[in-house]
Design brief:
3 helices, Succinate dehydrogenase assembly factor 3, SDHAF3/Sdh7, 68 residues, single chain, mainly alpha, transit peptide
Length: 68
């Protein structure tokens, strides 16, 4: 189960950073740093908070994907 969670987090992290590639350079830099900080801060949270975190970022990823 933990392996599935880790791969889900990595895939989401990678997807969000890929979506940032279309942003202007200054916004990409700010967005990338924000994503890195958020994922790092939530690395050791409990299961419930981790699920909420992933759901929110997956929703944001979907929204960004429709704008691109």
């Amino acid at each position: 189960m933990a392996g599935l969670h880790v791969s889900r987090v990595r895939a989401l992290y990678k997807r969000v950073l890929q979506l940032h590639r279309v942003l202007p350079p200054d916004l990409k830099a700010v967005g990338d740093q924000y994503v890195k900080d958020e994922f790092r801060r939530h690395k050791a949270v409990g299961s419930d908070e981790a699920q909420r975190f992933l759901q929110e970022w997956e929703g944001m990823s979907t929204n960004l994907d429709t704008c691109v």
